[in-house]
């Protein structure tokens, strides 16, 4: 990747990763950019080769977004890596990785606990219809209840299972099992009609990824 490509990737990725994350950008063999955070610094330098035990290497290998705990024997400190490969016609050109303190953002459950009015409700993943960014929190919508989660949409995107959820807009993540139909929209985008009849636009930023994920 040339410098223009790296800058373009970073301008996009900063909107979607947790603010306290370190960020690395790699091509298929080595790191080409690294921005440490105050929370965790792996000491990566441009030109360093990608170790097989890193989150970056694993994302390049499986060719899809991953979240993985990496032990201290790799960089000297443990971390949680959230890595997204950069694909070109099915081939990985590189990867962008958000690096977080060990065990941060790991939810060992299959549900989100949401707040509604003056109480909390554990809501299983498979009941969540969609998530919407609202005022630095995330609104969680299901068929039987809605409420708010304290994490923002970007943090939740990396936690939620890829086989159920997909980001379709800067403000929305949807559960694909609750998409009733997909309609064409302006400028090569789509409009989703959910099972509760709410309508969510797939923005241009996510349109290609959305088509690949759903295979059409």
TrEMBL record:
Highest taxon of source: Bacteria
Residue span, HTH LytTR-type domain: 112-216
One matching Pfam family: LytTR
Gene Ontology molecular function: DNA binding; phosphorelay response regulator activity
Family matches, as SMART domains: LytTR (SM00850)
InterPro entries with a match to the protein in the record: LytR-like, LytTR_DNA-bd_dom
Listed Gene3D superfamilies: 2.20.25.10, 2.40.50.40
Name of the protein: LytR family transcriptional regulator
Organism from which the protein derives: Peribacillus butanolivorans
Upper taxonomic lineage: Bacteria, Bacillati, Bacillota, Bacilli, Bacillales
